[in-house]
Give the backbone structure.
Amino acid sequence: MTFLGTSAAVPTKERGLPGIALKREGEVILMDCGEGIQRRVLAESVGLGNEMTILITHLHGDHVAGLLGLLQTMSLSQRRKPLNIVGPEKLLRWLRVTSELLQIGLTFPIRFSKAAPGTILRTPGFRIRTAKAVHSVEAFAYLVEEKGRPGIFYPEQAKRLGVPEGKLWSRLQKGRTVTAQGRKVTPSEVTGPPRPGRKVGYSGDSRPSAGLTRFFAGCDLLIFDSTFGGKDADKAAERMHSTSSEAAELAKKAKVRKLALTHFSARYTSTTSLLREARRIFPNTVAASDGLAIEVDYPSS
Ligand SMILES: [Zn+2]
Ligand SMILES: [Zn+2]
């Protein structure tokens, strides 16, 4: 996954407005679409023709103003594949009105899902789950869960059961029963237990909450609102954001594996102090920066 923009509310020279791209085997999940996202998408080779799902957390300009331009570019490049968009109900209204006024003739269908708590969408590679965030407007957090993988294949075991290497092995690896030397061999005889997929959570703009702690439990990577540092904790509470320490507390309680801080207020030219504060509570924390790419590790099974 790659951070396309890591600033809050307004861009700075170093940081663009929110956007995160998750890429896996020709599929892209784009989380939030701040203004300026198009050039970042190009710079990071996200690939707008891909199987794609866009998750919008809430209708504040810094998270959504880039979406229209993105749709226009996709149409100019003759995208045909349907595009999944998940977001608050009002997003669809905004899209309809603006694309009509600007006469953007979409060349592809939009499959819109209204965000609501629960499982909202299944894509070829992922299950998308949603929970309520705690912000000054209706806002949602997302959990992107990779589909599980079959268990580890044991070639020695397959040989012992008389299954010759080749087509039959690949069938077993895909979870199908085969017949070798007149005997049925099931996948469970030659593979380990199924392995879970990876889970990435994204808070969008939010205060920490018990609900989000439960929602993000056990994430392999949690990306959380860290608009402010500890000395601006009052501002975080007042404006319905989080400090980096609050993000770290939640990560610790939710027992996630790794935390990425993002959505930094423009007042911080450097995010070092925010990172230091968070690491005191949750050591496996990184501060996102525009262009930062993170390979999400598989949970050890
Ligand atoms: Zn924001
Ligand atoms: Zn906001």
Notes: The first strand starts at residue 2 and ends at 5. The chain is about 30% helix and 25% strand. Residues 8-9, 60, 62-63, 205, 263 surround zinc ion (ligand 1) (CB under 6 Å). The mean pLDDT is 95.
